[in-house]
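Dear colleague,

Thank you for sharing your sequence with our group. We've completed the structure prediction you requested, and as agreed, I am returning the results in plain text so they can be pasted directly into your records. Please verify that the sequence below matches your submission; if there's any discrepancy, let me know and we will rerun it promptly.
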Amino acid sequence: METDGILLGMGNPLLDISAVVDQGFLDKYDVKLNNAILAEDKHLPMYEEMTSKYKVDFIAGGATQNSIRVAQWMLQIPGATSYMGSIGKDKFGEEMKKHAKLAGVNVHYYEDELPTGTCAVCVLGGERSLIANLSAANCYKPDHLKKPENWALVEKAKYYYMAGFFLTVSPESILLVAEHAAAKNKIFATNLSAPFICEFFKDAQEKVLPYTDFVFGNETEALTFSRVHGYETENIQEIALKISQLPKASGTHKRITVITQGADPVVVAEDGKVKLIPVIPLPKEKLIDTNGAGDAFVGGFLSQLVLEKPIEECVRAGCYAANVIIQRSGCTYPEKPDFK
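Please find the predicted structure tokens below.
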């Protein structure tokens, strides 16, 4: 089986600035745990304050890039994954390139004059809140994607993953790839990613959904999606089913919806049926932080999907990867996976 460049991700590469903070800090910047938002002016001083006040870790992140890194780690096959996004020509950008190389991902970044995007990861009681200052990540354009050396990555891949966050930056780029995937019977996956995406980028999201073969999300995002689309239900299984049955651009693959619920079972909706698959239990004292847990789940899932494993196996790999990540700070992992 040809695995070279089989999985391609596109998204917002962000350098995570991660720290365990206190409630006072969250209150000062009006930040809620378990949320993901774009930085407003009032949030901009927090990056500097975190760095001076707390012990911070710098980790190459961004939702899609995390998932692709984890998929690459799980696969342990050199050159299996590629990734595109926009960074700045600065030390954070250099840091990003270094991390990506170490992770074994074939990255084709666009380099912009603006500084590399950052994401404040505020951790309290093991839960995380994300505040992204996109900066250079916001500058990705379809022109970069259309360059022959970059479009070659699209042609080569058979699976594509783009988190919903990329909808805020370049919906045109997403659609170019999504349309290619539908035309060539390839697999296109996306993520609900955050309540604000479902709410404020609803139109862009609705244009992409017909092309999606896999839709990932967590229960909070699913509930927001349900409310925004007038489903009038808070039953996660029902919402997952409804998403899986939304209209599709191509009939080759049926859509599968995969909703995680923290420590509760993973909801998988396909073919008008719902399966519940339990996660690996983790005692509270082993939980370090949930940053990257959802991204890791997707990465683990995709690592088996590209090997054409059954869905249960993909979910099991997702749960394994998420379980490893939440026992560490940020979206990091040991040298080799121990997944059998």
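Summary note from our side: DSSP finds 13 helices and 14 strands in the chain.

Kind regards,
the structure core
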